[in-house]
Amino acid sequence: MKTFEEKFNAWLDGLLSDEELKSFENEHASLHQDKAEFLKLKGLLRDNLGCRKLGNPDFFNSQIMAQVERETYRAGRYSRLLGVPRIALAGIFALCVGFALFFFMIPRGNLADPGSGYVAEVLKTKTADPKVRVTVDNKKDMTIIKLEGLDKLPPDKDLNR
Amino acid sequence: MRRSLGENAPIKLRKGCRFYLLAAFLFLPGAFATPVIATEHVWGCLLYASNSTKVFDLPSRLTGYDVRLRNGFGFSNYRVIAQRETAVGDRDENLLVSAGDIQVLLTNLSRASDGKYLVGILFLEGTKQVMETQARVGERSPLFIRGPDWREGQIIIVVMVGS
């Protein structure tokens, strides 16, 4: 359903259908005076404010073209800044930095257990004394080389030097 | 708008510079990341293991090993007799730790490609060579050697790479 303003504008512009025109003029008979004033004003404006041709058309054209070029350059610069290769390179770079930080900054292994990550593997043992027997006790988190048959150290021997 | 070859030259130069800057940024830190073997530190320690009722603290480097020591050696108490940290130099033999006649020497140290260390250890009593061993150890992974009996306990040698 049209509002009063819509109907009023259409009435001024002569765009109402016959039925709508009759109905609108019956409902708002007092508006004829307003229409007469509007038509008078329209005529005055048309007579006194006609299209005026501006001078120096080349100057205005060149200004417009310069503006267009500036806009094109600006758009091109932004598209170069955010181009696909650049975004891909930035992504690769960010990944590299992320991996580098991950490997160098984050300690690996179970921090609660100091034995995690323990590596001690005896490859070779040699003893000059045939009395001494060497065995290796390899546990998950502790490797012990056991020397059996060693002479007991004298109790009075001072090892605290 | 097409640019001439001369106009393109500065852009190509700028792109080339950017590539070298990026490459430098990515790879230059690598030059500082690889430690030189001469700066490696090896810690040697002599412990006296006993069942004494007197309680001693373990060295901070062996924090968390108290239960394992108790289970592995069967003694309840561990006292530090001597400990020493050595910065490994170019010499063939480095004294790791000594107490009385007991000496523990580092005969070689090299870093394998997997980041582990190959260490050579020589255990001496006076001038007598008791035992020589080659082992592959990780950083901060102590290697234990059960040494001679002394008094009511035993001497334990501990060698660990990394400070």
What does this structure look like?
- The complex is a heterodimer of chains A (161) and B (163).
- With 161 residues, chain A is mainly alpha-helical.
- Chain A folds into three domains: 4-48, no CATH class; 57-105; 116-152, no CATH class.
- Helices cover 52% and strands 12% of the residues of chain A.
- Chain A has five helices and three strands; from the N terminus they run αααααβββ.
- Chain A has helices at residues 4-13, 18-27, 32-48, 57-81, 84-105, and strands at residues 120-126, 133-138, 143-148.
- A two-stranded antiparallel sheet of chain A has the order 2-3.
- In chain A, strand 2 (133-138) and strand 3 (143-148) form a beta hairpin.
- The longest helix of chain A has 25 residues, at 57-81.
- The N and C termini of chain A lie far apart (109 Å).
- By secondary structure, chain B is α+β, with helices and mostly antiparallel strands.
- Chain B folds into two domains: 1-34; 37-161, no CATH class.
- In chain B, a hairpin with a 2-residue loop joins strand 3 (94-99) and strand 4.
- The longest helix of chain B is centred in the N-terminal third of the chain and has 29 residues, at 5-33.
- Chain B is globular.
- The model of chain B is unreliable at 1-6 (pLDDT under 50).
